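[SOLVED] Need 3D model of a two-part complex

Original post:
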Amino acid sequence: MSTTEIRFSGFGGQGIIRCALITGKALALYDDKFATMTQSFGPEARGSACSAQLVVSAQRVLYPYITAPTVLMALSQDAYDKYHPELGHGGTLIVEEDLVKLGGHDPRLQVWRVPATRVAESLGNRLFTNLVALGFFTAVTGVVTAEAMKRALPGLVPDRFLKVNIKSFEQGYEHGVQLREAQAPAP
Amino acid sequence: MNIVHADPRGVDSGAHFMDGDHAIAEGALAAGCRFFAGYPITPSTETAERFAERAPEVGAMFIQMEDEIASIAALIGAAWGGQKAMTVTSGPGFSLMMENIGLAAMTETPIVLANVQRGGPSTGLPTLTAQQDMFQARFGSHGDYNIIALCPDSPQECFDLTVEAFNLAEAYRTPVFIMTDETVGHMHEKVVIPPADQIKVVERNLFTGPKEDFRPYRFDCQGGHPMTRAGDGYRFHVTGLTHDERGYPLMTPAQNQVVVTHLIEKINGNAEHIIRLEEDQVEGAEVVVISYGITSRIAVRAVAEARKKEIKVGSLRLITVWPFCEQRIRELAGQVRAIVVAEINYGQMVREVERCAAGRCQVVSVNHCGGAVHDPEVITKAIEEACR
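Solution:
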């Protein structure tokens, strides 16, 4: 039985928990998988480093926390510094390229750099950075389908911003598909 | 028992990606709870928030009280006004509620209380998980009494067991506790809420006979004696004092014997109808792991590891924690070499297991105090050592 363990991380207010909620909902409700989401909670979830964990499996998830994550999405320097050491060989690291300066991670990791903030700004608001990153994550990891992710958005983003959130997701997704097809993960 | 289908107004049918706290609120609404009084406390507040948000949609009342003492007092009043009522809290709030939990037990008032456990004692570890209030749930108020306590292991079970908690509260006219924990309370998973016509709900048993015949109590060691609603014109009295069948004080040693025996035996005597356990490969096992709540999910992984090492190990999950499954533990103690009890406290339910095993098998406590779930390896190691 294969289990995928994912950590979403960044600083409080970036929509990190929301990323995990959207992905978990997409997997559990629309991709016919089992998904268990836990999150950093309390003072540490507000400001500084914030993280959410998602365990995905074809069978019921028993142990709710990640023990050997295979995917890390880091949208802040603190998050990258704190969590990259837990990624196993062959793990996938996704970072926001303007917010994270790489250095020191295991060279065997597959590293993807995404200009999520700039894409979000081009769509009108950097608040959509997390959705751009999530679209990119969906394209390069293949853990979850883009259809399921888009179906999961209503109810998890404000109704009036649903369209632009979908657009942000799609732009991130397209960018991810292009990079993946070019087989050009960052060195 | 008057069993009906759930009122569709309270049932948010369908598949949700939801945390345990929210699922408790949905379970309450599905069960027909229309009164919530509470005081916010981490990590239980999300239940109150969900209930407050949904209350106007279903015609329910939500009150944020001045404290936990008032909250549970309001529940007792609401229940005697005819409502199904609930509150939710955590350690420090649970302590404050103890006096009136005794009042609810003594007055045989059906109420439901969820305790999303966090590390204690005192304010302890507000944001971190624990299972340290298990004995407080059973024995926390003064005097002799009895209650029912259920222990969900997932957001789905938070929904299912909250419905069941309300049904048990009505069936036995007793406080019922949902003893969950921060991990399950804040964990998001798929929760399927069935259509209203697939949810069975026990309705309040209201007296319908001639007014002069109404008695709010009958001390027959059974539960579910008909109640009435304040204002319906039936004469009755509700007091924490030792009382007669009309509810009026009758403060004699003999009557205390009658009332207290009834309070305890209406639950113990029906234990076989109340208790739910989940067993896996217990027949022929040398070691059985007993756990509940979030710990039971960790234990499954430990048990699987032990089985890989060809150890005959079974597991028993306490879905109903109180009343305790005394009879089953007595049977098992005569069949297995050891029982391993895993829980996030200094060793609470293990005392019950030891009492019932009475020395007929080894009882091993795998415990640590609040703040984190077990490392499954620690449980596996205990299983291995127990069968050496």
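Edit: Chain A is about 35% helix and 20% strand.
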